[in-house]
Amino acid sequence: MSLKLLQIADVHLDAPFRWLGTRGREQRLQLKETFRRLIDLALAERIDALLVAGDLFDSNTPAQDTIDLVRAQLARLACPVFLLPGTHDCFDATSVYRRPELAQLPNVRLFDAEHSAFAVDTLELAVQGQANCSKTSPTSPLRGLSRRPGARYNVALAHGSLAMPGTEDDFPLAPADFAAAGMDYVALGHWHSQRVCQGGRACYSGPPELLAEGQEGCALLVELGEGAPRLEARDVARRRCAQLELAVDGLPSAAELAAAIRARGDPDLAQGVTLVGLRPLDLVLDLEALARELEGDFFALRLEDRSHPALAPDEIAALPEGTVLGRFARLMGERLAAASEEAERRTAEQALQIG
């Protein structure tokens, strides 16, 4: 018999989305819709258990209608739900998980200060996890967990960061922690991107919906049986983000620049654009006006100008030789003239212009 699990983490219901400005409310509503999609996926895939590896809520003070939504959606499932408090919704004195609306759901197994292990005999499954009882801690979330010999499948949930040399992360997870626990699979939360660890025996799913720029995640189907776990990422997000470096070299006008950005337009895309390169002196950029012009083509748009004005050769030659700027220009001009390779020439040319 194999076992099919659905892993989610870092949903962050009721996140404020300040970086989205006036569109923040729309994305908060989208998180709720995506959570409904996750339950739809669980039902369609006929999963044996749902694993929630922390930060289902963005804080311990979500709105009442958000708590009601979670209760109603989890109640749609007949399978067990293993729910781990994370760092944003930690199990402290004010924890949302102390609310009776969530504590009384018959299919929910909540990891808290008193419960770190659950068994489902009909599935031959043992699931363990240490609730995060504070927002920060130097202790591994896998501490004290070990394989239950009576269970065919041993699974753990952990909300923390892979330990990196030279860093002091909260809730650090070192290779030795995974080895000591001896689990068949560890469902990880806290990092906001999908990442497979420990040769496929542990994985971050990342958030199921857009949370911030540069963060991509999914829901993760995990099948346990003979051999290594089989992982299948499922994209359930409506919205996504993208980053673009756009060279302004040779662009004749702001209209051409606007057209180049508009070509990537998507009403569900949060697009970041960084302008780079050397722009003609007569190309005048008004980023605020450009953002207003293009905002209807994207869900969100952020523009950043890291380009530099390009001086013509006669303008460089006119710089007074007795000044620091004039002397620098002539020295870089000599290096440019002596460059023997194209890459060296481009570097010298860019240094001359930026300098």
Describe the model:
By secondary structure, the protein is an alpha/beta fold. Helix content is 26%, strand content 26%. It is built from 9 helices and 19 strands. Strand 2 (49-53), helix 2 (64-74) and strand 3 (81-84) form a beta-alpha-beta unit. The longest helix has 21 residues, at 24-44.
Brief sketch in words of this structure:
The chain is of the alpha/beta class and 355 residues long.
How many helical stretches?
A: 9
* Unreliable stretches covering 5 or more consecutive residues: none
Shape: elongated
Radius of gyration: 26 Å
Q: Strands of the largest sheet, in order across it?
A: 4-3-2-1-13-14
Helical content stands at 25-40%
Hey, roughly how much beta strand do the residues contain? 25-35%
Cα(first) to Cα(last) distance is 67 Å
The major pleated sheet works out as: 6 strands, mixed
Strand segment tally: 19
- Coarse structural class: alpha/beta
Question: Keywords for this structure?
Answer:
alpha/beta; 26% helix; 355 residues; single chain; 6-stranded mixed β-sheet; 9 helices
